[in-house]
């Protein structure tokens, strides 16, 4: 539980930071060059992922410390919010955040065709051409598949969870979950990191095409 809480604290800081960066980017993509637009599109895309926020009565806050301060002033409880769900504890909210993020990322990569318009939506892009939609779906899948969890036990690393468990048992040590050089003891934190990393990889894979399109039309 200690490692879970440490991972959760780190998540709070990262989540708050991402909210501030996303808000700070508003209005900055107009009139910029194509290469800069790709960075803006990734930032804007990441801001759409599920987030953890807080409620004290009818007051919504994005910072836990601020929420606790308001709760103390009003002699009220802090509610933890993820999407439309509310929880009475950080642990429950964190688990929901992981699950909701994984579902969001999975749905993002899954092609969906409208029976009325005939358009296919993939990764937030709506297309009338099934061939183009298929190519984009393949591109997004390839980008996401390039991101995976690895494991570290002491100085040894591996990509197999069974091998990691055996190493941890032999060395009487803990196996760390690693996603893009970020290590954690908490499996839930690792799942969240993985989902976010896959989503970012998909956005970055799409960004060059969007940038090229804008540069041509300017």
Q: Could you explain how this protein is built, in words?
A:
The chain is α+β, with helices and mostly antiparallel strands. It has one domain (2-217). Helix content is 57%, strand content 17%. It has seven helices and eleven strands. Strands 2-1-3-4 form a four-stranded antiparallel beta sheet, covered by helices on one side. Strands 9-8-10-11 form a four-stranded antiparallel beta sheet, with helices on one face. Helix 2 runs antiparallel to helix 7 (187-217), helix 4 (90-109) packs across helix 7 (187-217) and helix 5 (130-145) crosses helix 7. The longest helix has 31 residues, at 187-217.
SSE topology:
Blueprint: H1 2-24, H2 34-46, E1 52-56, E2 59-61, H3 64-74, E3 79-82, E4 85-87, H4 90-109, E5 112-113, E6 120-122, E7 125-127, H5 130-145, E8 150-153, E9 156-158, H6 161-171, E10 176-179, E11 182-184, H7 187-217
Helix pairs in contact: 2-7, 4-7, 5-7
């Amino acid at each position: 539980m200690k490692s879970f809480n440490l991972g959760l604290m780190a998540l709070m800081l990262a989540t708050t930071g991402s909210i501030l960066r996303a808000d700070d980017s508003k209005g900055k993509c107009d009139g910029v060059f194509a290469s800069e637009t790709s960075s803006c599109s990734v930032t804007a895309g990441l801001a759409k992922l599920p987030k953890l926020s807080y409620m004290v009565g009818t007051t919504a806050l994005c910072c836990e410390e601020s929420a606790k301060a308001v709760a103390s002033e009003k002699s009220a409880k802090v509610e933890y919010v993820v999407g439309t769900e509310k929880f009475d504890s950080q642990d429950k909210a964190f688990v929901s955040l992981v699950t909701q993020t994984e579902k969001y990322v999975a749905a993002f990569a899954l092609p969906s065709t409208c029976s009325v318009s005939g358009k296919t939506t993939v990764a937030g892009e709506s297309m009338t051409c099934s061939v183009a939609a298929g190519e984009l779906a393949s591109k997004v899948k390839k980008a996401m598949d390039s991101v995976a969890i690895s494991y570290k036990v002491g100085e040894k690393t591996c990509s197999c969870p069974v091998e990691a468990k055996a190493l941890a048992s032999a060395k009487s040590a803990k196996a760390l979950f690693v996603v893009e050089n970020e290590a954690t003891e908490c499996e839930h934190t690792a799942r969240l990191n993985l989902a976010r990393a896959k989503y970012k990889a998909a956005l970055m894979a799409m960004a060059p095409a969007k940038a090229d399109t804008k540069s041509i039309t300017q």
